[in-house]
């Protein structure tokens, strides 16, 4: 554990080249942080309990990296230069805004919710750089180091980027107003992961009674596209869980289905582990 993240290792079992990460599970802010959004509005971006829900992966040989600080402070699932220049006091060559920044959801959030701005004044470039150096880079360095070590040991590594989603998209989402399925699997339309692994994950969820959709509305964000490289046997996919399955979305507390859902995710994690054990023999198998 560090002040920025926790990297949990497998529980009393031989480690597998399986790493889950939860970049939006944090809810902390630095003591000097100030913004216009309320506590409840800030919590709307929190992937509440996602790290806890996926903790059963530790029992089957996987590792779990989870962030401590809120995505509303800095979003670990964005490129480090995905900054909206309109948010800054002066021009900065470090800005390369993406589609996320256009919707107010870049590295540094412009809006907490539709029509709810985060700040009442432009930000200093120095503040952005400090957030990157103190909170963003340590998390990514930890993930990169873990993936590198496991690939060196096993010649392949599987990475799952874990998230939650509101049960209905809002106006900042590309599926505004749409009811969402139970689970969305994102592999960037097949470009970032091992298709057999994605199929096993889908089959595991479906066998447990969940409705699963691939790549709509989420194909996978920066973490998946940055770390996934199937040609080098680095497989990365994203899993989005519908919050209504396990929590009260207004009160941000677990609901009565939480424990059962956590057990189900343990079964999904077990299916991931079985697949990896069966496919470590050679590149032709994946």
Automatic annotation (TrEMBL):
Pfam family, one: FGase
Domain of life: Bacteria
UniProt cross-references to InterPro entries, sorted A to Z: N-FG_amidohydro
Full protein name: N-formylglutamate amidohydrolase
